[in-house]
Amino acid sequence: MGCCKVSAQELVDIAHRLVGSGKGLLAMDESNGTCDKRFVAAGIPQTEETRRAWRELIVTTPGLGENISGAILYDETIRQRKKDGTPFVTVLADAGIIIGIKVDTGAKSLAGHPGEKVTEGLDGLRARLQEYFQMGARFAKWRAVISPQDGHPSRGCIDANAHALARYAALCQEAGLVPIVEPEVLMGGNHTIERCGEVTEETLRSVFSHLVAQRVMLEGMVLKPNMLLPGLTCPKQEDVDAVATATVKCLLRVVPAAVPGIAFLSGGQSGELASARLNAMNLMAKSTMQRLPWSLTFSFARAIQQPALEIWRGQDRNISVAQDALAHRARCDMAALHGEYTAAMERL
Ligand code: 13P
Questions:
Q1: Core-most of 110, 188, 209, 298, by most CB within 10 Å?
Q2: Which residues have any ligand 1 atom within 6 Å of their CB?
Q3: How many CB atoms sit inside 10 A of residue 22's CB?
């Protein structure tokens, strides 16, 4: 590593604080386009000010740091402030939350591969990472999307995305940021859980092969995968234990023990299901003799934010109830890390 500011040991320590502290990550790094899409669905005007107000609601949620170790921001958000002028990064740091930043520039059509995407953002990334580090970021995120539908993914799509993830991860470590490596096999479609498993396994094998080739220090990164799930319109849905068993089995096959933690994305699952499935995995690890080499935690966006967004609807008078809903999901997810989540928590 050509790293100057941050030692390898410091990267390892940050990764452990993110995923080994018994807490999880809050993804609040929707691009402006994605955030606006969620606002349209909730009837909220799509302006820079409403996005700022929504993010202020999130970062000022009382007690957030009790359940959240790190928050992933977007370029617009890392520069934003509370109405009283306090930068969001200061609010988060005061709550003991480590600052993360999404650094990819989105999934674009992959030439020669109709219907498939490759995530862009490597050009100029070294300079952008330096700027984010100076702004207080200590970890980063890059998301690749892989569809298991319509005969996809192709080898070319998997390898192009894995290569970009590995180049990004190496640049992050050079700049003193812990990379979150996120290859997401999408939930949309009617594929079975078995198909999701095949594609996830093949994708993760390629990702780790490229990470090793690019000399990424596995101890100083976090993997952010999908859970193994049937497609949303698959006629055969699976129970919580089947999802947990299939997911852990797949990860044990392909994720090296040197990786300190795995932080799942929610991918369109409801908050309750995401908590229940994560809980089942951690319960399995606790109750069988199957010791897992890495921690299993969360890095959810929708599964934490969605109920709060639907309560807020852009109205100041709803802020406090929306914050309660956000804190509730974060508490449920943290309980799931310890195998202590129950459906009864939802009725409290
Ligand atoms: P979801 O939890 O809504 O899938 O978002 C996670 C994320 O960070 C996607 O990049």
A1: 298
A2: 27, 143, 182, 265-267, 300-303
A3: 12
Tell me, what DSSP letter sits at residue 118?
Answer: E
Q: Structure tokens of 278?
A: 């994560």
Residue 4 reports pLDDT greater than 70? no
Atom from ligand 1 closest to the CA of residue 72: 8
User: Do 14 and 139 meet the contact criterion of CB atoms below 8 Å apart?
Assistant: yes
| Enzyme catalytic residues | 182, 224
Residue pLDDT, tens place only, 244-291: 999 999 999 999 999 999 999 999 999 999 999 999 999 998 887 678
**How far from 310 is each of 302, 305, 323, CA to CA, in Å?**
11, 9, 11
* Rounded CA separation 250/254 (Å): 7
Q: Is the pTM of this model over 0.85?
A: yes
Query: Virtual CA dihedral for 331, 332, 338, 340, nearest 10 degrees?
Result: 120
The domain that holds 15 is classified in CATH as: 3.20.20.70
In a domain, 76, yes or no: yes
